[in-house]
Design a protein that fits this description.
The chain is mainly α. Helix 1 packs antiparallel against helix 7, helix 2 packs parallel to helix 7 and helix 4 crosses helix 7. The longest helix is centred in the N-terminal third of the chain and has 26 residues. The radius of gyration is 15 Å and the shape is elongated.
């Protein structure tokens, strides 16, 4: 019991730190990187809940799929799943020069997209914190 709680707390701590970094990336106009790190925030926050509830191992990178797998064990809303889907689009396209035809990630993502990704990540991070406090 103590180990699973600790593992969940570690994942949540890293998600929170990544969120701080994503905000800095937006401020410095690294929009592709901010979008990717926001996806990582969502993924790590949801994995924190999985670990906290005793899941081992937690495999996968789709925030939306990770949330759906939790649905029976945690209060996952449709809005949260939608936020996960918003973040999933940034997992590959923000990192690889051949992911988008004719444009590199550094030129493909906007401040508005980065801010929206941060909002989605914040919703998931806030939810995950509440889940860990609840149990």
């Amino acid at each position: 019991m103590a180990k699973r709680r600790r593992d969940g707390e570690l994942w949540l701590r890293q998600a929170a730190d990544d969120f701080r970094f994503a905000r800095l990336a937006v401020e410095r106009e690294f929009f592709a990187q901010a979008c990717f790190v926001a996806q990582q925030v969502g993924e790590k926050a949801v994995k924190a809940v999985h670990y906290h509830l005793g899941a081992r191992p937690v495999i996968g990178h789709s925030v939306q799929a990770l949330l759906r797998r939790l649905n029976a064990r945690a209060a996952v809303t449709a809005a949260l799943v939608t936020s996960g889907g918003e973040l999933d689009q940034y997992y590959v396209a923000t990192r690889y020069p051949d992911a988008l035809p004719g444009i590199v990630p550094a030129d493909a993502f906007s401040a508005a997209q980065a801010r929206a990704a941060l909002r989605a990540a914040q919703r998931i991070l806030t939810w995950a914190r509440a889940q860990l406090r609840r149990r």
